[in-house]
Amino acid sequence: MEQKLMTGNEAVARGTWEAGATVAAAYPGTPSTEITENAAKYAELYAEWAPNEKVAFEVALGAAVAGARAMTAMKHVGVNVAADALFTSVYTGVNGGLTVVCADDPDMHSSQNEQDTRHYGRAAMLPILEPSSSQEAKDFCKLAFSLSEQFDTPVILRLTTRIAHSQSLVELGEREEYVSKGYKKDAAKYVMSPGFARKRRLEVQKHMRALSEYAEESPLNRAEMADSSIGIITSGVLYQYVKEVLPQASVLKLGMTHPLPRRLIEGFAAQVDKLYVVEELGPFLEDTIKSWGLAVTGQELFSPIGEVFAQDIAAALGGVSLPPLPPDELPARPPLMCAGCPHRGLFYLLHKHKLTVTGDIGCYTLAAGPPLSAIDTCVCMGSSVSMAHGMEKAGHPAHKTVAVLGESTFLHSGIHPLINTVYNQSAVTTIILDNSTTAMTGHQHNPASGFNAKGRPAPAVDIPALATACGVKHVQVVDPFDLKATENALKAALQFAGPSVLITKSPCILLDKKAQFKPYAVGPGCTGCKICLKMACPALGLQEVPGRAKAKIEAAQCAGCGLCAAVCPSGSITRGEA
Question: In whole angstroms, what is the distance from residue 417 CA to residue 397 CA?
Answer without folding.
Answer: 19
